[in-house]
Amino acid sequence: MPKGKKGTKVEKVKIEYWKAADETGSPQEFAKQLVPKYHSHLATAKICYLFRTKARTRGPKVILGTASRMNSRLQALADYDFIIEIGYDEWKELNATQKQALLDHELCHCGGEENEHTGEMKWRILPHDLEEFRDIVKRYGFWRSDIKEFVDSVPAKPSAVKPVNVSSEKNQPPPPDGIENVEDILQTQ
Predict the structure, then answer these.
(1) Residue 159: inside a domain, yes or no?
(2) Contacts of 154 (CB under 8 A, 6+ apart)
(3) CA triplet 82, 89, 178: central angle to 5 degrees?
């Protein structure tokens, strides 16, 4: 068993992944409204929304979600341009506005440029403007406690962005048995 600080034993948690169902309160539902409004360059992007049982951490920080571009190896298994991965343990605790802000943030990482000769999109992952996107701060204000360094850029009144119309906030179902990693998910399609 791995050892933590000062020799204490740390139990390793098994992380499971599953595709988020496209239903009320899902990441897809938020993205369907965010993409045309703020991320029109992603209109043709194929995005896979994955939940993982527990959010990642980086030091003391909890990482609610991550966006990554599909590499050629994974694209051979599934036809996606990006994966947006969300810690389900944290997602189910967020309100609709926080879920929308999280999805908007992750979509800000997904960039693309059209090749003027072929018309094909070349996708890429964009870094943070600072440690957050300025647009997210403008839209949602101080939505997380660890964005303290952004306080000075928050306008007196963030623009009035209303969360998507979520008629009933259903939590996503627990992960299916036997799915342990991204490759397993892609093989179940």
Answers:
(1) no
(2) 137, 138, 141, 142
(3) 70
Q: How far apart are CA 42 and CA 110, in angstroms?
A: 8
Indicate the pTM of the whole model: 0.71
Let me know: does 64 contact 91? Beta carbons within 8 Å: yes
Contact 82, 66 (CB under 8 A): no
Q: Domains in the chain: how many in total?
A: 1
Mean pLDDT of 60-83: 93
Q: To the nearest whole percent, how much of the chain has pLDDT over 90?
A: 52
Residue 104 and residue 38 in contact, taking contact as beta carbons nearer than 8 Å: yes
Residue 6, pLDDT score:
64
Rg of the chain over Cα atoms, rounded to whole angstroms, equals: 18
Does residue 121 lie within any of the structural domains? yes
Phi and psi for 94 in degrees, rounded to 5? -85, 150
Q: Which residue in 82, 72, 130 sits closest to 103, CA to CA?
A: 82
Decide if 150 is inside a domain. no
pLDDT, greater one: 25 or 125: 125
Structure-token pair, residue 11? 């139990």
Q: Does any domain span residue 160? A: no
CATH code of the domain covering residue 119: 3.30.2010
Query: Tens of pLDDT along 127-184?
Result: 987 667 778 878 988 787 767 665 666 677 767 566 655 443 444 444 444 434 444 4
* Domain around 44: 14-126
